[in-house]
Design a protein that fits this description.
The structure is a homodimer of 215-residue chains. Chain A has nine helices and eight strands. With 215 residues, chain A is of the alpha/beta class. Chain A has an eight-stranded parallel β-barrel, surrounded by seven helices. The complex binds nickel (II) ion. Chains A, B: Condenses 4-methyl-5-(beta-hydroxyethyl)thiazole monophosphate (THZ-P) and 2-methyl-4-amino-5-hydroxymethyl pyrimidine pyrophosphate (HMP-PP) to form thiamine monophosphate (TMP).
């Protein structure tokens, strides 16, 4: 599956502002989200599996890859397209061994060293941040646009910017070298998730077009 | 690998009374533990992987199977012998599909219905309890020796008794139909883990011998 990172939705079904996570996901997909990552931090795994199976079908209908945060066994069980792992999670080379050559494997990388290690380990893309301050991820260290640019220059892998990204600052991420932007609450807590996704998609598409013209 | 459930150690490296988890594990193995399950509830996964790799080697030296609580991907990464899953964890049929026909798969089952479902799903053994009151697992519902007996009679799978088991009450578990006993703190918090394991092993062996004579 080819990798379109333009608008990358991180979805925690426990945090969709009291709305049905599947309805929020479908609204986001209608709005133009290009990747969905399922993240699940607390609660029974079987609930995630039931919920993930429905999300799996939904993403297939929209031809958008579904990635699972951290757990390669859940990715296998759900026939998801891959996993996203942090620096303290399952190592990407282990994820690759478990999931095979066609799986999509993303790694959180905040420094050039982490980016190069992930690239050597066979990652398909990097998640880099926090670019801007954010309430979603307490204690996430801020790297700023300059940190994003430094990572993007250090690797041949596509980089998705994460952390406090919204429709207003998405273009700056693309200008700093990102292939796309990852958001959590900017979509899942938005009054209108479809409109929020659409605004992000438009901002990213315009910035990518501008970058191509400049390039 | 054949399955000897006589003394089943559940090891949480975060709870070994301030001692090195590997030293506690080796003492327990010297004392006669026949299965080790690695349980890890909090903290970075990579720490569990580093730690689990050392435990993997230790268990191999003692020819004792190593099982991983819940995570089939960690079992694959560590080349462990299998997994133990609860009723809300990865379903046993999914674990079987991921780990293959030779893996050992245990399921927590407190009722005959759960036991029969686990058997149908391809489990190799059941963990049944809490047989006695315990401080290790808050909120674990008590089923007593009668509940243990009911489950053991409802299945052809070997059953390991868990929850408040010690060298004094282990024989009663075997008499109720258990193939062995699982302990956490009775070994890991004991002043002398090797002696604690040895006392449990002796109690279980004597009770199994008595049961064979009676049978
Ligand atoms: Ni703990």
């Amino acid at each position: 599956m080819s990798l379109d990172l333009r608008v990358y939705l991180v979805l925690d079904p426990a945090h969709t502002g009291g709305r049905s996570p599947l309805e929020v996901a479908e609204a986001a997909l209608r709005g133009g989200v290009t990747v969905v990552q399922l993240r699940w931090k607390v609660g029974p795994l079987r609930e995630m599996l039931r919920w993930g199976a429905a999300l799996r079908e939904l993403c297939r209908r929209y031809r958008v890859p579904l990635l699972i945060n951290d757990r390669a066994d859940v990715a296998l069980a759900l026939e998801a397209d891959g996993v996203h792992v942090g620096q303290e999670d399952l190592p990407p080379e282990v994820a690759r061994r478990l999931l095979g050559p066609r799986a999509l494997i993303g790694v959180s990388a905040r420094t050039p060293e982490q980016a190069q290690a992930a690239e050597a380990a066979g990652a398909d893309y990097l998640g880099t941040g926090s670019v801007f301050p954010t309430g979603s991820k307490e204690g996430a260290r801020l790297i700023g646009l300059e940190g994003l640019r430094t990572v993007a220059r250090a690797t041949r892998l596509p980089v998705v910017a994460i952390g406090g990204v919204n429709a207003e600052n998405a273009a700056a991420c693309i200008q700093a070298g990102a292939a796309g932007v990852a958001v959590i609450s900017a979509i899942t807590q938005a009054p209108d998730p479809e409109a929020a996704a659409r605004a992000l998609r438009r901002a990213v598409d315009e910035a990518l077009a501008a970058r191509r013209l400049e390039g």
